[in-house]
Each structure stands twice: as structure tokens, then as C-alpha cells.
Amino acid sequence: MKGWQKVLKKNHEYSRHLLKFVSVLFAVFIWFYVLNSEPQEVTHNMTLHLVPPKGLSVSNLTPEKLNVKIKGSRAFIRTMVEREENVFLKLQNYPYKKKGGFNIFLSPEDISVPFGVQVMEVSPDKFKVELQKEIRKNVPVKINLVGALAGDLKLMETNVEPSEVLITGPIEVMRKISRVQTAPIDIATLEGSGEMKIALVDVDPRISIKRVTPVDFSFVVKPRKANLTLKRVQVRFLSSSNRIKSKTRFVSLDVLAPEGVRLTASSVQVIADVPDEKGVHSVKLRAKLPEGIHLLQINPQSINVSNR
Length: 308
Known about the structure:
Elements lengths: L1 H35 L3 E12 L4 E3 L6 E8 L1 H8 L4 E5 L11 E4 L11 E7 L2 E4 L1 E12 L2 E2 L6 E9 L2 E7 H4 L5 E2 L3 E2 L6 E6 L9 E2 L5 E9 L4 E11 L5 E2 L4 E7 L12 E5 L5 E10 L5 E6 L2 E6 L1
Parallel strand pairs: 1-4, 8-12, 9-13, 17-20
Antiparallel strand pairs: 1-3, 2-8, 3-6, 5-7, 8-11, 10-16, 11-15, 14-16, 17-19, 18-23, 19-22, 20-21, 21-23
């Protein structure tokens, strides 16, 4: 019985080793097939990144892409082409302090590629680089509106958040940049009120916008004409003082209300937030309306209030 168990154990070990040997043999066969498959030559676009020394920035226009002719087996070439490849050049390794700039010469050896791929040619293989002092500043974001609304509609409010962004770049280029713009927004597609994410447009390839996420754009679109006017709405004065005086005690409101809704002056509030400082103040009025009622205008929008 023990002898039979030894035989079975030996057969099991033999089968395990044989399986390992076959697996290795199959892997080697596949590897040689890949290496010996017919090589391909393709041109691949690679993104060029120039890394200047600290405190400096590239001031002239340089190539953003390199056309790199590569050669290799079909499998390796496919893997490389399917992903975005980058080329980083550290400018501190060049004579960056040279007045008037310096030339960069590229050869196939300067391009890093995966094993099994060979660089045959790089284009362009020569370009000039000029450096200037790098500065940074905050600039406003301008909303780029295009198109037109229907004649009976009006764009009442627009807002972008953040209203400013930080940019960096060479000093001479930065002096010419006073703002950045959003991507075009077709106002013909805007309805009611809402918010959307909008990307910022690159102002210059030499300028870096220190924000990778889109900005928030909000808007309000309303009809030009009100379908209801509320007259003699009493103004409510909010102040810590009890010595408030104003010649204007009543105002009128132009509002947009759903069809069939009845609205009276007593169902709305017009509020004047009066400063605590003594003197005469021009106070902008605000209104509180029932849900579903849209304010178009308060007449007048501001009133003079004295605080004694």
C-alpha cells in the first residue's frame, strides 16, 4: 500500500513539473513570435514639455508637438501609439543664461521610448528657446456670450465663479494679458435660470492658467414685459435705529406670474436695508415674492433714506 502511494506521489510531482515546463516553453514561443513579427514604421505625435529653471519662463513660441518616426514590432508599436506620449526637456541642462536665447538640437537618442521600439527620426530637430523672468497675477474672467435671444426675452443676470483666476508666464507676454475668456456660450440655448460648467479658453501657449477645472456660469432669462404690475407696495425699513425717514413709502413692482395666479400688494414684501450710520443714504430695494413669481423690476429701484 505504501509503495503504491509513493508511485502516485512521484506521478503527481512529474505532472506538475511537466506543466511548468510546457508553460515556460509556450511563453518563450509567444515572446519570440512578438519579437520576430514583421516590424512597422509609423509617425507618432508626442507632446513637448519645456521645463525652465525656477523663476524663468519660455518667452518665444516653440513647437508644442514633435513628429517622431518609430520602428518596432506590431505589438509594441500599437501599445505606444494608443497612449499619449510626452517628451520633457529640462532647460537647466542647456546654456539658459545665454543672452538672446539658445538653440536646442534633438536626436533620436533624446526621445525615450519603451523596450522594443526604436526612434528613427524626430521633427523638428532644431528650434530656438528664449527665457524671461516669470511673473504671476490675478486677472478677471470675461463671459464670452454669442448668439441672440428671442425678441421677447431678456438676459437679466449673468455671473461667473470664480470671477478671477491666477495666471503665470514671461513678463513681456504677461503685460499684454488683462483677462481670460470662457468658451463661447450661445445665449439662444439659455432658458429660465440655471448653472453650467464652462471651460476657459487658452489665451497664449506661453501663459499658464492655474486652474484645470471649468468655471461655474449662472444666468437668468426672463420676458421683457411683465404680465402683472403691483402698485402701492409698502416699503419695509430694516434698521437698528427708530429714527428713519424717507419721502418714498410706496413703490410698484413689475412681476411675471403664472397664468391664473392672483397676486396682491399685501402678498409681497419690499425691503430697504438702512445702514446704521447717521446721514442720508441711497438704499437699493429688494423684494421677497411668493414661490413661482419672478421679479422683473422695482420702481424705483433705490430710494433716499435718512437716519438721524
